[in-house]
Structures are given as structure tokens and as C-alpha cells.
Amino acid sequence: DIQMTQSPSSLSASVGDRVTITCQASQDISKYLNWYQQKPGKAPTLLIYDASNLRTGVPSRFSGGGSKTDFTLTINGLQPEDFATFYCQQFDKLPYTFGQGTKLEIK
Amino acid sequence: EVQLAESGGGLVKPGGSLRLSCAASGFSFSTYSMNWVRQAPGKGLDWVAAISSRSDYIYYGDSVKGRFIISRDNAKNSLFLDMTSLRAEDTAVYYCARDLVVGATRGTFDVWGQGTLVSVS
Q1: Interface test with A, best of B109, B110, B114, B116 (most A CBs within 10 A)
Q2: Using CB atoms, which residue from B44, B62, B115 is nearest to A100?
Q3: Tell me, what's the pLDDT at A19?
Q4: FRET label pair with A17: which of A32, B57, B61, B68, CA 20 to 30 Å apart?
Q5: CA distance B83 to chain A (A)
Q6: Residue A101: which of B44, B62, B107 has the nearest Cβ?
Q7: Are residues A95 and A11 in contact, defined by beta-carbon separation less than 8 angstroms?
Q8: Is the pLDDT of residue A1 over 90?
Q9: What is the DSSP annotation of B64-118?
Q10: B43 CA to chain A: closest CA distance, Å?
Q11: Long-range contact set of residues B30-34: C-beta below 8 Å, sequence gap at least 24
């Protein structure tokens, strides 16, 4: 199975900050990488698909990049509603696998 | 409005069985692949199973293979997960999730239900 490793596991930041979360795949997955946001007690929501494509309706302060084994999720100008847990997920090979999550907290 | 609504969760003893259902509305259910994804309490996301739009392709995660069966009824806009030989480690919130692209089993989950809790104890 492809292992997905996110860093950091947790992160404290302030409203208005720029933050970057990284995700590393255990093998080349091209750009078959998605990012999800999950708020407490809620289902995850899709933010970015195919590594860099912003889902319709997601604010443009979110962006994704990378390919092969190294990927990033960047949030430019954090807003109060952005504090949540973020997961990367590969869909290059079955079984689909997720990173362990990055919890973004208010400083 | 596009919606998914899971039901059927509950408390079950180890070795027991349970059937989860997911009712879809607001979109053409029969044209999308569907998935089950679970999340143990306080833990991350774990993909469980996928089924193509016409049930011709079915895939399972390693930890549930041979114990869980995913199925669908397109006439009733419903997705199912039959779980047998349940273990304590199957305790989780189970989400149904739609695949992003019509007609493809792509592994990108763009619509999620609210989840249903399965407790094995």
C-alpha cells in the first residue's frame, strides 16, 4: 500500500498568516492527490483535487502544488473558519490511502 | 440539493453483523461510483470500499476484505455496506461518499454524508 505522510501533525497559526502543510507519498503517485478539510463533528469536504485543482466554491486563498512524491497545501491569509484538520489522500493505486492529518489551531 | 444520508449504525457485539445504508438525493445516483470511508474515534480517515455505477467494479480495503460487502440499488438511489465478523477495531463513524467524476471510479470524494457510528463492544 502507498503510505502518505503529512507534516506537521499539528500547527498553530494566527488569522491572516500564510501556512503550508506538506504531504509525502511513499512512491510516485504523479498528481493523483487530493486535499480534504474536516471540522470537528463534521464530515470531510474536498478542497483540492489532482494536486492543484481548486474545487468549485473553495476560496482562492487555498492552493495546492507538487507532483510525484511531494505535495503542499498552502493557505494564504488564514480566516477564522479555516481552523480544522486537513488530510491528503492518494488515488493513484488501490487501496486509496490518507495521510494521518494535520490539525491547524488558532495561536 | 445534493445529499447523502447514512443510517443503520449502532452497538454490536464482536463477531456480529450490521447493515449500513446510504440514501442519495439531488443527483443522478446511477451514474456515479460510490464509496464507504470510516473514521475511528479521534483517528484519521480510512477508505473501506468502492463500487462502480453499475456494480461491475468493486474494491475493498485490506482490513475489511472477506468480511464486508458493498452493494447498491440504483432504482432506490441507495448504497449499502454489509458488515460481518465485526471486530472492536471496526468501531468508527462510517461515511458514504460520492466519486467526483460521472462514470468513473476515480477515488476523489466530492460529496459526503453526515456519517453513522458503528460501535463494536
Answers
A1: B109
A2: B44
A3: 98
A4: A32
A5: 18
A6: B44
A7: no
A8: yes
A9: TTTTEEEEEEGGGTEEEEEE-S--GGG-EEEEEEEESSTT-----EEEE---EEE
A10: 8
A11: B30/B54, B30/B74, B30/B77, B31/B102, B31/B103, B32/B98, B32/B99, B32/B102, B32/B103, B33/B57, B33/B98, B33/B99, B33/B104, B33/B105, B33/B106, B34/B70, B34/B72, B34/B79, B34/B96, B34/B97, B34/B98, B34/B99
- pLDDT for A11-47, tens place per residue? 999 999 999 999 999 999 999 999 999 999 999 999 9
Quote the CA–CA distance of B68 and A58 in Å, as a whole number: 34
- The answer on pLDDT for B103 being more than 90 is no
> What digits encode the pLDDT tens for the residues B50-82?
999 999 999 999 999 999 999 999 999 999 999
Give chain A positions within 8 Å (CB) of B47.
89, 95-98
Burial B39-66, CB ≥16 within 10 A → b, else e: beeeeebbbbbbbbbeeeeebbbeebee
**Chain A interface, mutation test: which of B65, B94, B108, B114, most A Cβ atoms within 10 Å?**
B108
Q: CA B77 to CA A89: how far, in whole Å? A: 27
Q: Select from A3, A52, A56, A94 the residue whose CB has the most chain B CBs within 10 Å, as the one to mutate to test that interface.
A: A94
Amino acid type, B63: S
